[in-house]
Design brief:
Helix content: 10-25%
Mean pLDDT: 88
Distance between the termini: 19 Å
Length: about 150
Amino acid sequence: MSDFRDGVSGTFNPETFFAMAREVGHGRALGLEYRDHGDNWVELALPWRPELVSLPEEGIIATGAIVSLIDTCSGTSIWTALGGFRAAVTLDLRLDYLRPASRGETVIARCECYKITRKVAFVRGVAHGGDETKPIAHSAATFVSVD
């Protein structure tokens, strides 16, 4: 299995990772898309699809799909900050929902790993529908290393 490293810098490359991840399992079921990344942040998208809707009459995306998007984006931001994989599990993930994700709206998550200790990583994030001034949710998460 590839370690998803960038050929130039030798560090973890989330774009390469998501090219594979969206073809299998959870990433495939949700249809997660890579958008961008930096040294300690990642941006992913969850396109609106009817099978992700919790209220068909209103077209609102299920909160579970948004939680999965943010959890995946958060974990990937840790690998990006570390420059590679480190086994970690979500210890705590808090989402403050500010509004629903509407019919046809692609949800974009941007998560930043802002602190890593020997065993714990701290991540904050936001989800929006393309307009960052109108967030869908804010997140705060901690992940614990299992190695």
